[in-house]
Amino acid sequence: MAAAENSPSLSATNFVADPPPKETQLPDAVKNDEVEITNLSDQSELEYNSTDAIWYGRHGVKVTYQGMVLVANQVAMSEATGDVIADGNVRFENQKQYFVGEHVEYNFKTGQAVTENFRLGVSPFFGEGLKLKGNVQEKNLTLGNAFFTTDDVKDPDFRIRAKEFKAVMGKYLSAKGATLYLGKSPVMYLPYYKRDLTKHETFWKVVPGYRSRFGAYLLNSYHFPITTNISGTLNLDLYEKRGVGVGPDVHWEKTPVGEGEFRAYYIKDGKADVDPFTNKEIDSERHRISFSDRVTLRTNLTAKVVVREMSDPFVTRDFYESEYRANSQPRSFLEVNQLWSNWSLDFMAQPQVNSFFQTVERLPEVKFSGLRQQIAETPLYYESDSSLGYLRFRAGEQNLPEYAAMRADSFHQILWPQTYFGWLNLVPRVGGRFTQYSATEGESITFDDRSRFLFNTGAELSFKASRLWRGAESKFWEINGLRHIIEPSMNYVFVPSPNYNPSELPQFDTEIPSLRLLPIDFPDYNAVDHIDSQNVIRFGLRNKLQTKREDKIQNVVNWALYTDWRLNPRPDQQTFSDVYSDLDLRPRSWLTFNSQLRYDIHEEQWNQAYHTVTISPNDTWSVRLGHMYFRGGPEFGPDSDNNTIFSSVYYKFNENWAARVSHHFEARDGVLEEQYYTVYRDFRSWTGALTLRLRQNRTGPDDFAVAFTFNLKAFPRFRSGQDRDQPSLLLGS
């Protein structure tokens, strides 16, 4: 036991009998407060020389210290100095950095390192050289006779070589007298080379293509760092038929003014279309300006400003299609929020920046909300929502009257949550609302001062029951135990007829048509000016079937059914609302089925049916099939019906080639509305995609487009799956 006595900071047991003099063979792992040494196999050996306080490891050893890991065939470590000498297949890892070599000398206490014939990785950069020395903990290294690349292969397609590099890992890499190689051939001498190792890199993005509406085009963007936290982009787009589009982008994060972006774009459009709403020619001088910023002024006090200004409503449709599909009528606003533990104060200013978009201006509006909170030591809870603002309805290009008024609204509610029998939850509630309107300003709509009073009451009843089958097993269905959860609920809401109905009030916050059921209770229902009488019960039933897959709980089935029973329907309502069904089914980890249904029980017809099946068993192929049926109505506008079948198939032929095919087919009239065909090619350090799109427009000529995009693997331009979900990005828009 002499080894343990001479080394009180280490603990070891099960010593080997008859150890050699001055050495003691130790068990599979030893550690103290700083360093842990572990055997990697049954053949590994650990020995300790108590005289010199040196640890020896042979035949595969791992040394760990504060997140740093060193693995080698042989290791000798001085306990006193922290010096380590490692030989044979040495790999050193520190967070997202690593270097490998045959011989490494490292000090765990100081961080100093020396290695020869090394390879280095600091994603997305990789290097190789004859000698490395420096301080790993301070991430300050010098590399001799080395090269750097972003091509993670033995023989990279391109690389930068120099006799000596200075590297501050995670910040920058610099060298004097560097040479750029393509393959094995030198192509450029660089007297001084410096590369930022942060994510703000200097690089070009180029997308050549052809589109029938644009002619041939070449989209160019030059990305560059301005400061550590600010990056810029210069865009230069050349269109054969439309002209030249130019504009800068600036993005910032973690700055004193918060995080946000500024984007501007201008083009003198040589072939602007006609506005379909006004039948007027769109001005050829087209532009868009986008600015957003979010800043934390202090703890729980945030401010956000968004400005979207455009020359016409279709400039984003023509030149930023993905953005247009996500939000065709963007808002501009200033919002300031102060949050406390039980209260929230919001300031909102929303002007009409674009005169062609319908807007409810808030000039401004202040809202004070009381989050649900217990009243002293009573079993009662309180919540509230109060606002004051000057509101103005602006019609945009629609031929509607415009009006404005001051509005003060205050809602207060008391709740009494209770649990019976240990499982039945009942939450009765009672509340009231007072809304004051000033006399409206406007030529066509005039209301005098009006005060609306509302009373509301109701109760929510729910419970949750579950059962567990631990022994349920199926390798085919990937079942490792089953748990069934059922959650029935019933929510009753009663609102007597107010003293003013919606038609007698100016409409600012009104109901927006929705494909799903809107909330029925306050304050979730926030169409303040559209509130009318209610006497309704919402029934809901949710079923979940869960299992354990890859050590995580996963829903095999998640199914919700819900509908409203209107006990006293208004003239514009039926006794029962549509019945809604939302189903997510995942029988295998790679097989997903989603369903959304909406059935009209009065007319006995389906109003909506949306189904998708996704099959992705591996990274070689995947299939997504879907069907969208929707029976529109006057509230959704003309020609709002849909009966669309869509599909997307991806197949990887080998390590270098892959393809994706997508279709949208409208079954109402047999029109193949949209087709995408993309071929992907892996060029090792970068990937290319050739995309063809055919679009059959219902108004105007058909649209044909083809483009080539490339993507450096070290700096991907799309998030994972983004080119699948937004394929127009592959065309540069």
What is the distance, rounded to the nearest whole angstrom, between the alpha carbons of the first and last residues? 73 Å
Overall, the morphology is globular
> What's the oligomerization state?
single chain
Mean pLDDT: 85
Strand content: over 45%
Largest sheet: 26 strands, antiparallel, barrel
The tally of beta strands, per DSSP, is 44
| Continuous helix count | 4
Question: What fraction, in percent, of the residue positions are helical?
Answer: under 10%
User: What low-confidence regions span 5 or more consecutive residues with pLDDT below 50?
Assistant: 1-32
Radius of gyration based on Cα positions? 33 Å
- Structural class call reads mainly beta
